[in-house]
Hints:
With 198 residues, chain A is mostly helical.
Amino acid sequence: MTERVYLFKGFERFWHWSQAALIIFLMVTGFEIHGTYRLFGFGNAVNYHTMAAWTLVGLWVFAIFWHIVTGEWRQYIPTTERVLAIARFYSSGIFKGEPHPYKPTPLKKHNPLQRLTYLAVLTLLSPLIWISGWLYLFYGSWAAWGLGALRLEWVATAHTLGAFLMLAFLISHVYLATTGHKWNSQIKAMVTGWEEVA
Amino acid sequence: MKTPLNRLARVAWLAGALGLGVMAWAQAQDAKPVNLKTTADHSKFKELQREFKSGPELTKACLSCHTEAAGQIHRTKHWKWEYKNPVTNQLLGKKNVLNNYCISIASNEASCNTCHVGYGWKDASFDFKSEENVDCVVCHDTTGNYRKAPGMAGHVVTKDTEFPPGSGKIIKGIDLTKIAQKVGKSSRDTCGACHFYGGGGDGVKHGDLDSSLAAPDKALDVHMDATGLDFTCATCHKAASHDVAGSRYTPTAKDAKGAHMRGASDNGNPATCVSCHGQSPHKKDALLNRHTAKLACQTCHIPTFARGGIATKMGWDWSTAGQRDAKGEHIVRKDAKGHVIYESRKGDFVLGENVKPTYLWFNGDVHYTLLTDKIDPGQPVVGINSLGGSPNDGKSMIWPVKRHVGKQPYDTENLTLITPHTAGNDDTGYWKNLDWNKAIEAGMTVSGAPFSGKYGFVRTQMDWPITHMVAPKDKALACVDCHTRNGRLQGLDGIYMPGASANPWVTRLGWGLVLLTLLGVTGHGVMRLLSRGKKQGA
């Protein structure tokens, strides 16, 4: 008998997958703008990148609203409780067939390590990308905003580093999605909302 | 169904239509055929219904009505060929500057000054106050029959004339009466008669001005397109009191003002792009307007110059001039396309068509190396002119230029440039006798500059800002022409271009991080797979 728990509500799943698609598309266009390859053509890549960024802004407006009114923002309050146990699981227990030391519940759907990671993404990586991205978008207004001393090179470098960090996060995130009860339990959960936990 | 009311309406309508028709017919009968382009039909003027034996004779007739015209011309660069740069105080103008094409006009006036808007400037004795020596029709001819033959100091001939005397070559006389009776506004042809042929031949000097602009298609010049907008030169180079706007000595590199408003007192140079298009000319893609802070419009909108099928000179090496063939005759060598690439009289040429410009920061300051300036032949190249500019001076824009390189004579003792006597049917003219010593001696005497008697050849360079041959927008540069490694603006200071300028260390660091992450998750995954057996066994 498998134990299942309903973790991700409809909006959350919609948010997750549309955000994933947008971020991947932003990376595809962003690395073309960076000069890594040619795909859409530079001018198109810039326009698509800008459109996708604004779409993501819109999505975030809804997501933030949803988190506030549903109280789900509490899921991201950091905790250090049992964080070492979870770190130990990923570095050794997982190879010995030990069960995951954390059982998610609808009220605490992220394990402490996830909470810390997502909080870091939210408070460090996202601001790096968003602030540099907005400055990039409004390059023409810097002088009017009193930011004349700012240099495009710094902003572009910050944005590029943010993109690489996000790509590294994406790789780890996709991999860690396979570390649930079964390799596909967590992925299924993100599709159906129900996660198999035992 | 026909009702009485309906019938009445129809009758009224018919009567109205008939009435209007009659009125229109009456009007058409009243109006006589008229030239709507001008208020004066010069063929009806008695002053012009006679024979003119010379240019000055015709000018006197012009001035009998246009009393102020000669005085206005006298104040312009077109007449004086002299201009004092108010910023550098350098005395410039064709009379004073040198270039690295035919070099200089001193001692060569009879030939060079064919393009002067006057008659008879053959040497320093020319009277710049003479009104009758102003050439009106060189700019106002509409027939295309007006010709000023080289060697005659700008004079025209009205009867078939042998020139040079004894040469057997006949210059055909022109009918000044016909030309005078059809004068009109300047045109691409009249301006082009000189400006297309600067440097001694079609397209030689400028690169963005040649005879292909006489009747260009849209792809060659979106404004002058003969079947489209059909601009003349004067549409942009708007003249007031015969003084034509636009200057190569004090160009407007950055037009910080907006589009001109009629009557506004601070309207600047009317020949700039901004004077019509304003500061935010891109309506569909606002992102492009951000480029206007640093890029001259010309940088993107003139992708290449010499696009009309006429080659321009990109290099001129005088040091190889003077060779003769086995019989002692002058040599002319041509390339496969029939372009002259070597002449005994002039040396080697490098020609170019569809040339990508050189790009540089330009703030409008142009400094010339004049005959009185010392040069340093140890430098890799001596700038005959040098354009000022930097990314940080607030006045510069990135401009496209034609960079013409040359090798020309200089005085190895006095370390000055040299004004040789080239054109002229006399013993000292280089183009006749191929003797540098005589040519330099004669030329420097006329210039009034000292000559040590020793000469060599020095590498020189001139930059010519490119501003004509504006392509339609779909043929302008694309983003990726610059936003890529080794793009058009590669190596230019003070700009960061996404796609071109990323610090390679940032990129290396980034991919390093991504690679480490991949290695980490792959290693972790492989270990999980390998340990699966254990798990099942446990």
